[in-house]
């Protein structure tokens, strides 16, 4: 591995996880820093999971969910999208750059978008360097 | 919504109560008629700096609770949900109490049908410790000789045993770091309009209480008390209504000014490194109701070896749970043994949330806590 930046990825089972799978089966190349955790829906992600990831040494946290309107459970991604704003507000308070936290809607067929997003996110984090929490 | 001026018909109450004794009379009416099982009211202790909530079931005992106590900032909301969940109970509320109760109602922790909220207009409260110090420094009196205190016309007025009064402008006190509690200085909800009725002396003539009736239940309450012969009412003049809203507006304007001044971020505040993980702020918070199920108690967040805790894994988690519902009651500031201004950050995030959604905790009419609603909207 060229660097040891750690990205924790929380991906929804029905869309973004499928997207990562598609990227993988199509052998698309992206930086290998992400550790993927599969969740059933982006709507089940609590802000505290993000905070825990940062506390345990993640340099960035990525959340992937279904496109708005495509949620397997109807409205889970709406809930997440509202929650993500709170997460942003709180991270700002604790001196964590808001660029370290990113969320994106990626469907199961969008392997290419997953690859692109990962590359972008990795680039952003490389610029920011490792996260230091006091 | 309508306005009345009210005054007690009971001489004992008139004497004991403040400006007409209407509140005590209404509570007495509720008890005597058996409309409630009991009344939760503040009972003064040895001096004016100490009062604690008592559950009164005999209307004779109500007399002891009459009067106002600015130096005993308490919180009624969590008491009601912890101990009186299945009782019919009436209680007086400051605006922050009312907001806490409203938030708990939306969380199904309090049943609206079981409670009577008698609102009290509130210009702010004073912490007992700094209250004592302040009287020692700025007044010519000994703090122990004070028999009663009052906030009126921008002044903090104390009355001594011999009947003499002394007043100092609150503005001057606050410039020196005393006066009202910090959260009260920035609070912009001065009249509890979600309580059944909101009482106070703003705009009222001497010896009368100005009451704003907020809902049908409040109207029934006033009508009932009148019928029972314990309360007399008259309608206020236009000048009185105007005077009252003028007082309110001045207060709100002052609060807004204070809001502009304070609010550093957590990472800028050195106070947080003093945290000793005692969880007192969580335990006292009226909105935090999970108790032993609190996420902070879970093994994956319990971090006893690490003191002070990593702020984001302690206050960050609490912020994400309830900051959007923070009612800015300041209880967390009061109980913190390390004097961390906890409420500052919670209030700040509630204000941010307001900017995003227009939701004011305990004041807006939303049926569900905003983050949990099933609505299909983005922010």
From TrEMBL, chain A:
Residues 7-129 form the F420-non-reducing hydrogenase iron-sulfur subunit D domain. It comes from the Archaea. Transmembrane segments: none annotated. GO terms for molecular function: 2 iron, 2 sulfur cluster binding; metal ion binding; oxidoreductase activity. Keywords: 2Fe-2S, Electron transport, Iron, Iron-sulfur, Metal-binding, Oxidoreductase, Transport. Its cofactor is [2Fe-2S] cluster. Belongs to the MvhD/VhuD family. This is Hydrogenase iron-sulfur subunit. It comes from Methanobrevibacter thaueri.
